[in-house]
């Protein structure tokens, strides 16, 4: 025991957390991220269950659901762009905490309002806060994890947090049918994000990579020591930090030199894949209703769909770091395409539809968090969150523009036609990452740069 203690206190050079076992204190940080994800996903996924109810009670029309969803993703787009820039300027920690305040407050406002305009505004603000946190957390986990297991920790933290998806489904299934206004309770539950905000004020640490990029090496070494128990000398790492650039130059840098191809591939893959993923995440209960299922059955299908999320992320965590990251990513996307095609032909079998919906979202969220580990690995620390925010912002912008067309496509070509289209788009996305994507998994971030 004394030998182990001496090895931990001896000062040595190291690349942040690489090749250091995750300590109890480090694990507590990941648990805090899990809780943050959990409350964020309560807000992010509640509208899929609320939408059929507010159409039924006359608060909105079917067409307005597309408008609300489109505006929500515009809020996400803005949150992605600004969240990345802000977190590169003021730090991951402050941006993370700010985002929780925004989406928790906006969710409560959604429950309180009787105005359609205020409802749309609150949904936009919710999307803004949720995605500000999401892009910050993607880079944050990459920077706070050992290089050899970044993908594993991205998937494990997400799997724990995204248990909120079936939980909000079960709660919604129990509460929403109680009365025409019962959906408001679901929005009020979104205010639970204040819990992790208060915990984060005390326990959330700043990214040591961000601190080093800002010249605050001693503070970075202290964070690594507090989390790992090892006294790490980061002086050599600090010598290799590229010069500081402003936010606009960071954004332009994504489309310059060696980053041009990386950015192009991530957008060619990410935009179509995200459009498909959010058609599924937002519309599954509503599309089930269009197939003839009752509201209760549609909500149950939505619950089954949501339940697949943590299972998929947990299973994908075992091989997220394999094959240079891009191989499991491409395979996961292609499996999702096949599952979408199966869903197109299951017909109106209630039980079979629930089973396929579960499998479908297991693949969606499984590959999704492989992708979330994959994107930040393509950029250096000083532009990482700006780039992650921009990539995800462009993806959500694509989703936003696509949303109003979903009910039109489903009405014109039927639910089967819509899902065949999803298969085609997913197949294209899988081909892009498989043939053009870069291998990044298991390599120290500084070596990729």
Automatic annotation (TrEMBL):
PROSITE patterns: MFS, SUGAR_TRANSPORT_1
Entry membrane topology: Multi-pass membrane protein
InterPro entries noted in UniProt: MFS, MFS_dom, MFS_trans_sf, Sugar_transporter_CS
Residues of the Major facilitator superfamily (MFS) profile domain: 29-441
One Gene Ontology cellular component annotation held by this UniProt entry: plasma membrane
Keyword tags: Membrane, Transmembrane, Transmembrane helix, Transport
Keyword Chloroplast annotated: no
GO molecular function, one term: carboxylic acid transmembrane transporter activity
Localisation per UniProt entry: Cell membrane
Segments crossing the lipid bilayer: 21-39, 59-83, 95-112, 118-141, 153-176, 182-201, 265-286, 298-320, 327-345, 351-375, 418-437
Protein name (record): MFS transporter, putative metabolite:H+ symporter
Lineage: Bacteria, Bacillati, Bacillota, Clostridia, Eubacteriales
């Amino acid at each position: 025991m004394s030998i182990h203690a001496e090895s931990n206190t001896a000062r040595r050079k190291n690349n942040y957390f690489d090749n250091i076992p995750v300590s109890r204190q480090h694990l507590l940080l990941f648990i805090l991220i899990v809780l943050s994800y959990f409350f964020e996903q309560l807000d992010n996924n509640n509208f899929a269950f609320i939408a059929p109810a507010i159409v039924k009670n006359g608060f909105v029309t079917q067409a307005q659901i597309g408008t609300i969803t489109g505006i929500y993703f515009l809020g996400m787009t803005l949150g992605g762009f600004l969240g990345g820039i802000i977190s590169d300027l003021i730090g991951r920690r402050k941006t993370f905490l700010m985002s929780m305040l925004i989406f928790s407050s906006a969710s409560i406002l959604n429950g309180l309002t009787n105005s359609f305009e205020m409802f749309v505004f609150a949904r936009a603000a919710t999307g803004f806060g949720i995605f500000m946190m999401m892009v910050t957390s993607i880079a944050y986990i990459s920077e706070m994890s050992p290089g050899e297991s970044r993908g594993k920790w991205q998937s494990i933290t997400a799997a724990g947090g995204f248990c909120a998806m079936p939980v909000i489904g079960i709660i919604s299934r129990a509460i929403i049918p109680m009365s025409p206004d019962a959906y408001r309770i679901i929005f009020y539950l979104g205010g639970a994000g204040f819990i992790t905000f208060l915990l984060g004020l005390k326990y959330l640490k700043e990214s040591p990579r961000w601190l080093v990029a800002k010249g605050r090496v001693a503070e970075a070494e202290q964070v690594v020591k507090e989390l790992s128990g090892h006294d790490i000398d980061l002086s050599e790492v600090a010598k290799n930090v590229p010069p500081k650039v402003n936010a606009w130059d960071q954004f332009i840098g994504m489309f310059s030199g060696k980053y041009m191809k990386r950015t192009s591939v991530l957008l060619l893959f990410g935009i179509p894949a995200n459009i498909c993923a959010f058609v599924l995440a937002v519309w599954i209960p509503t599309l089930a209703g269009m197939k003839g299922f009752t509201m209760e059955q549609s909500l149950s299908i939505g619950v089954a769909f949501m339940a697949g999320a943590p299972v998929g992320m947990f299973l994908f965590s075992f091989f997220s770091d394999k094959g240079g990251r891009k191989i499991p990513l491409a395979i996961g996307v292609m499996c999702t395409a096949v599952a979408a095609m199966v869903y197109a032909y299951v017909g109106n079998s209630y039980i079979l539809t629930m089973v396929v919906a579960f499998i479908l979202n297991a693949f969606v969220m499984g590959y999704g968090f492989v992708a979330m580990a994959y994107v930040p690995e393509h950029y250096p620390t000083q532009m990482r969150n700006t780039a992650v925010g921009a990539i995800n912002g462009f993806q959500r912008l694509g989703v936003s523009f696509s949303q109003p067309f979903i009910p039109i496509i489903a009405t014109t070509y039927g639910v089967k036609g819509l899902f065949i289209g999803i298969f085609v788009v997913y197949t294209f996305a899988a081909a892009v990452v498989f043939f053009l994507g870069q291998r990044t998994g298991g390599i120290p971030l500084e070596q990729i740069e």
